[in-house]
Write the structure tokens for this entry.
Amino acid sequence: MAISDVKEYTHLTDEEVEQIGRELDAIRAEIEESRGADDAAYINRLITIQRSLAAAGRVVLMASAATGRGRKPAWAAGAGLLAVAKILENMEIGHNVMHGQWDWMNDPEIHSSNWEWDTAQPAEQWKHSHNYIHHQFTNVLGYDNDIGYGILRMAREQKWHPANLGQPVYNALLATLFEWGVALHDLDIERIRKGEKDPKEMKRQLRQILRKGRNQILKDYVVYPALSGKQWKSTLTANLTANIVRNLWAYVIIFCGHFPDGAMHFTEEEIEDETRSEWYLRQILGAANFEGGPLLHIMSGNLGFQIEHHLFPDLPSNRYAEISVRVRELCDKYDIPYTVGPLHKQYGQALRTIIKLSLPNRFTASDQPEPPTPARDRKRKSDDERPPRRRELGGWMRSAAS
């Protein structure tokens, strides 16, 4: 469902919208003022763990190749360690460092201007296509290329083409090769197709991608396998497996945050003269969270709190759990939809949308959600009037944050 006016959809008055903006600004200010040694210790500790896992994976694979003993268990252990290390680097470290979440530390290594992550897309291009385009124009049709990544039809308002019948296949390929799909993202294939892309800029970006992609291929499929000697094939397949696992995981997490039922799309009219408070509302309506324990959230880059991430993309990710409690309370107060569910359910809904929208609209039913309660009928809920499940979840999030 594409919304052209979030205030009208949510039945909020102008004053309520501005008050919501002030309350969210207050949350931001409070977190910014409370950042300190514990937060810095968190990211430094995580980087140490991630690098240790990567080194351990490499050592296990090379030791197995040298001795020839226990090859299969060692291969599985090495590939598993590398997969976890790559996931941590991409999700909780690289993605969040490049958002500027740790720039306040003034550490030249852990800084958005210097970090280059372990994936095929150059950091410069990622920060443009993701940090600016996607986060500024979240789910706005015609602006946000993350809506289907240029190959999937993810909104009923997008024109159907017979090529969309192949969406289940395209989706499987995108998931498996996600690193390379993301690498091409900032090229903006749609603009190239329409002849709107500056040829000089396109060539510059392609050179960057080819250089970064070459380095990734050399590292994982030439240098490290060569160090394993005669068992180079074992190391190469372990590296390939780790990259595929990382690709599949990153794909699932990102799709769970943007395409379950309840994560809405917006027309270009919505962003005309949009205020910051209205931008906040669009971020809440356009994203979705999933439930889980602390380890799941760390492995997902804390993107299980996708709503909070879209509200505050440059605040430290380890603070999203505590922020989410207050954002949910604010959504309850104003009857704003807050989309959350188990990971498997969120991905199942996203996958259903991919399959359903491979067909023309006339063959499928709309999943248009019910709009929130009109302001004149809205009843402010006290803690005692809230559903027990929400109180329990809020308590869980408080314990996870501590």
About this structure: Residues 37-67 form the longest helix (31 residues). Residues 149 and 185 are 7 Å apart (CA to CA).
